[in-house]
């Protein structure tokens, strides 16, 4: 009978410890959930920012292409102007 009482006492202590372990585990899981939500929010903001950055890079790319076209036009006009200057302002020889 004493052995049975001791066994019941040990099982009661074990039940208390298991219950505390469950509470600790649940608390840790809740903290992890909060951290994961925070990370998810940060990731969403980063994805939104990446979309904006990609759009801005596309606009910059087009601007550089247009600028290159304008530089070519100016270089062509300069070349044509030099030809005209050489004809009009030809030194009297």
Structural class: mainly alpha
List unreliable stretches of 5+ residues: none
For the biggest sheet, the summary is:
none
Instruction: Name the assembly state.
Output: single chain
Strand coverage percent: under 5%
Overall morphology: rod-shaped
Q: What number is the mean pLDDT? A: 94
What is the tally of helical segments? 1
Succession of helices and strands:
H
Written overview of the protein:
With 93 residues, the chain is mostly helical. Helices cover 94% and strands 0% of the residues. The chain contains 1 helix and no strands. The protein has one helix at 2-88. The longest helix is centred in the middle third of the chain and has 87 residues, at 2-88. The model has no long low-confidence stretch (mean pLDDT 94).
Concise summary:
By secondary structure, the protein is mostly helical. Helix content is 94%, strand content 0%.
Summary keywords:
93 residues, mainly alpha, rod-shaped
Topology:
Layout: H1 2-88
């Amino acid at each position: 009978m004493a052995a049975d009482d001791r066994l019941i006492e040990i099982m009661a202590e074990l039940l208390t410890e298991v219950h505390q372990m469950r509470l600790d585990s649940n608390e840790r899981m809740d903290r992890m959930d909060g951290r994961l939500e925070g990370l998810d929010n940060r990731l969403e903001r980063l994805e939104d920012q990446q979309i904006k950055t990609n759009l801005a890079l596309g606009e910059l790319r087009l601007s550089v292409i247009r600028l290159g076209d304008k530089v070519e036009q100016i270089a062509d006009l300069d070349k044509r102007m030099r030809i005209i200057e050489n004809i009009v302002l030809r030194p009297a020889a």
